[in-house]
């Protein structure tokens, strides 16, 4: 079964995160065991991004959401390492600035949406406005509850203009989060990542669960599906996300654009120049 089907929240489905195994790793026993497959998908991803860039018809928006320490940064590192940075942008969304807060909530996200031929990665996204905002009552319920429809309309507009949207919820369980917090405390190279809010937000675990479930139930659509990615194993998370991006880009049946010049004529000119310049250097090597 392809991973798009396997991990997608089908439009209209109920989501119960407690029932989903965050340690799932398909048929792979270990990272080493999965290495060959990871390499295959990374290579495919690289080629498909080149095609996306060359064809210049579609764009791709990847939204990453998850609890603290779920691995949003790690995923970006992995996906980006595969992509050509010329065709890719990354945007992280934090507490809105004064200017951002003075606009409608979608303004800052729309500005960062990908241009044709480009991939944009959102580290946190417009869903924060129905997640942290809902959990902490940052605006009244009558305001945030309307945002699900507004988000669906926004994503429909993007999709109608050639942007393919993939939204990934990185699913870790409470034990794994605590393990990762401990690692941050013990490893001086990770201590800078610790924030007070990681610990305070953990008290709201169940509220976040409900908020994530609502967002995925109300906003997983054909044009902008949500995927629940088992993320206790970082390498499986990376593999699953690469596979889903590859399967999605593959389904677009992109083609190399035709050359904008007459190749026969250009080849003739090239040979004329070589002849005139006395053959130049040998064609190969050197
Ligand atoms: P990271 O994304 O690496 O965790 P921070 O530790 O700076 O970065 O966290 C960013 C914070 O900004 C998070 O607590 C997140 O919930 C908050 N945030 C993002 N978008 C919004 C928003 N629209 N309204 C309020 N807070 C937001």
Report on this model:
This protein has 13 helices and five strands. By secondary structure, it is of the alpha/beta class. The protein has one domain: P-loop containing nucleotide triphosphate hydrolases (Rossmann fold), CATH 3.40.50. It has a five-stranded parallel β-sheet, sandwiched between helices. Helix 2 (31-55) runs parallel beside helix 12 and helix 3 (72-82) crosses helix 12. The longest helix has 25 residues, at 31-55. The chain is globular, with a radius of gyration of 22 Å. The model has no long low-confidence stretch (mean pLDDT 95). Adenosine-5'-diphosphate is lined by residues 92-96, 123-124, 128-129, 132-133, 138, 195, 197.
Strand order of the largest sheet: 2-3-1-4-5
Work out the count of structural domains. 1
First-to-last CA distance: 49 Å
Structural class: alpha/beta
Order of helices and strands: HHEHEHHEHHHEHHHEHH
Helix content: 40-55%
Give the SSE map.
Elements: H1 3-7, H2 31-55, E1 59-66, H3 72-82, E2 88-92, H4 98-101, H5 107-111, E3 119-123, H6 132-135, H7 141-144, H8 147-160, E4 163-171, H9 174-186, H10 196-202, H11 205-219, E5 226-230, H12 234-250, H13 263-276
Parallel strand pairs: 1-3, 1-4, 2-3, 4-5
Task: Summarize the structure in short.
This protein is α/β, with parallel strands linked by helices and 286 residues long. It is built from 13 helices and five strands.
Name a few traits of the molecule.
286 residues; binds adenosine-5'-diphosphate; globular; alpha/beta; five-stranded parallel beta sheet; Rossmann fold; 13 helices
